[in-house]
Amino acid sequence: GLERGAKNQFSTFSNFITTINQKKEGIGNRNSPTQLVIPNIKNVRDLPPICLDVRQKQRISIDTLPQELKAPIPPEPSLPIRTKTVKDFQDDVEKAKLSGDWKAVHDFYSTTFDSFLEINAAFKKDTNSPFNTIEDSGINAKFVNVVYDALLNTPQDVQKSVLKGVINGLLQEWKGPRTKDDLRAYCILLQNPQFSNTSTYVIYAHLLRQIAALTEADHHFLVHWSKKISQRRFKQLVDRLLQFISLRLFPAKPEEFPPMVKCTWWIPSATKVLALFNAANSLISPPIIAYTDFYNSTLDHIDLMEEYHNWQCYGNSHRFSFCQYPFIISIAAKKVIIQRDSEQQMISIARQSLVDKVSRRQKPDMNMLFLNVKVRRTHLVSDSLDELARKRADLKKKLKVTFVGEAGLDMGGLTKEWFLLLIRQIFHPDYGMFTYHKDSHCHWFSSFKCDNYSEFRLVGALMGLAVYNSITLDIRFPPCCYKKLLSPPIVPCDHNTLVGICDVTLDDLFQIMPELAHGLSELLSYEGNVEEDFYSTFQVFQEEFGVIKSYNLKPNGDKIPVTNQNRKEYVQLYVDFLLNKSIYKQFAAFYYGFHSVCASYALLLLRPEEVEILVCGSPELDMSALQRSTQYEGYQKTDLTIRYFWDVVLGFPLDLQKKLLHFATGSDRVPVGGMADLNFKISKSETSTNWLPVAHTCFNQLCLPPYKNKKELKQKLIIGISNAEGFGLE
């Protein structure tokens, strides 16, 4: 492919790009804009549904302009007649390989890519049909794929002719409104595999710049057409754009590219085009590729806080920040932003406390710099509720926990244990706040009415404190909960505004109550007479403390029968009642509790799935990864005791592996950065081998006596990890 050719074969293409710039300058202000429109973060929730992450200002629609300002929409120009089929092309390639005569293939490539019209003539399914809907791009995808798959195996002069043709096309199509044929050409050119090579990046950048500068309506078409691309090729397109951004940020050979000051538009253009693919991906259920495939781990190594502050300060200007396109930022990078933002808030509040103390001429006390929580194990929930309610002004300070009557010094371990015990008690079925659904293995809010919802606020505050203090919790909420938690992501100033209300579907109900959701799904697909056979009305019944209560799903719902015509409305109202309305007060308290600690613009960067990972960590354990990252003190990894230990642990079932992790670290979940982020250490204990292993959860440290054989080690380890809570064996 291109890698085999000499680099200087493509060096002259810079001259073509210079010509592009010169022509653009000559045209003046009549051209379509090439500057990217940077989003207004204040309007982040008022986005068109197809482009949730393409955060940009709303442009004026051409339909709203006065008649005298409207430019005529150009007619589609007639296309040349090209009759070559996929088979004809494949035959030409095979003949060229056998004979060494590539003239026919060269002529095809140089003609096809010479202009946007020729691209359409070759790859449009029917040149006589307009194909001007979002549903069908009219592109012969099979032909495009065959032509591109063969391209990198052709001689260099053939590949060079394609790139020259692309430049010609970009020059010709620089002016005027875009036709659907232009959009088709852009869609096809984006798939060119030559753009994986850095020597073509100057051309690729100008292609991306033109696509990024298209109107909102044109982007709408590209988004919908892109969702029809096969998964493998869609992933290749995304990876190519991510690689382009990474290599522009950290070039292996800086001399390959123009100076950064002369091409500041490269990265914004590529990121905006990537946003179109992200929007296309989100339109499909399930998505074409995982949302994590849009992460660019290179961004983990830039100044993220500068990006974050630029976004906060200049969100409504033309200053680019990756935070405007959060889908590209990895969860690890977002965690860094949230942690540093939290630290800055903690420092600010602690400093203010110190200033207040000094201004009143009082002696400063180090405890004033922390959120100090003192609780009794026997009154864990009530003491915790009282402490957090009484110290609401200190919630953004660093958390320190003390168990009354115990000598433990909180270096992190006591905090972890407090979270674990409190969550375990609150979520116990007998406590009545949450209902555990066995079919889905998750908890959901109890709809029982009560006089005081402060305990739900406590649970929300606990989740906020966990994120704020980088603690992972073993909470099993469905994904819908985190979607509601970000509705809206910033607490509204108007207290009458509803919070925690989001669009819910039958799929959301399936994740919580699969049996009920299946029944409603059966109702939707029932082929008989729904009204006569089901005899239902727009009314639901719930049992509360042994009493059956009825609720209307709409006014006079008890008098409206469910029919074949209105059953979709019935199901939607039923799901909305269960997941929104029936638990509104409970969830609102939970929402305000979470945001009382975690209120930050950084939450705008997060997807619901990412909030879940930040709160709970990942339940997927990789003990081999833990083995690779473990540090040793007093032992070598080749010592017999250590080899026994890992033989035993790797052979444990999942429940015992989780108990070991909980015993040693205070949590059985894996943090965002994976096992390596645990900084797990095994230290040699000089005590008798009759003793059980000991853990220092604040340091993620396991103290292991030098047991003489594997059987003894396994027995003592299982006893230790299965019976540990508090300071000492219970």
Automatic annotation (TrEMBL):
- Give the reactions, separated by semicolons, that this protein catalyses: S-ubiquitinyl-[E2 ubiquitin-conjugating enzyme]-L-cysteine + [acceptor protein]-L-lysine = [E2 ubiquitin-conjugating enzyme]-L-cysteine + N(6)-ubiquitinyl-[acceptor protein]-L-lysine
Which domain of life does the protein's organism represent? Eukaryota
Top enzyme class of this protein? transferase
Keyword Phosphoprotein belongs to the record: yes
**Transferase: is it a keyword of this entry?**
yes
A GO biological-process term: protein polyubiquitination
Entry-linked CDD domains: HECTc (cd00078)
EC nos: 2.3.2.26
Q: Which Gene3D superfamilies match?
A: Hect, E3 ligase catalytic domain, Hect, E3 ligase catalytic domains
Matching Pfam families, A to Z? Answer: HECT
Q: GO molecular function: any one?
A: ubiquitin protein ligase activity
| Active site, renumbered | C698 (glycyl thioester intermediate)
SMART domains, A to Z? HECTc
InterPro entries tied to this protein: E3A/B/C-like (IPR044611), HECT_dom (IPR000569), Hect_E3_ubiquitin_ligase (IPR035983)
What pathway does this protein act in? Protein modification; protein ubiquitination
UniProt keywords, alphabetically? Ligase, Phosphoprotein, Transferase, Ubl conjugation pathway
Domain called HECT: residue spans:
391-730
Purpose of the protein: E3 ubiquitin-protein ligase which accepts ubiquitin from an E2 ubiquitin-conjugating enzyme in the form of a thioester and then directly transfers the ubiquitin to targeted substrates.
User: Which PANTHER family does the annotation name?
Assistant: HECT-TYPE E3 UBIQUITIN TRANSFERASE (PTHR45700:SF9), UBIQUITIN-PROTEIN LIGASE E3C (PTHR45700)
- Tell me what this protein is called: Probable E3 ubiquitin-protein ligase HECTD2
Naturally occurring in which organism (per UniProt): Pluvianellus socialis (Magellanic plover)
Biological classification of the source:
Eukaryota, Metazoa, Chordata, Craniata, Vertebrata
Gene that encodes the chain = Hectd2
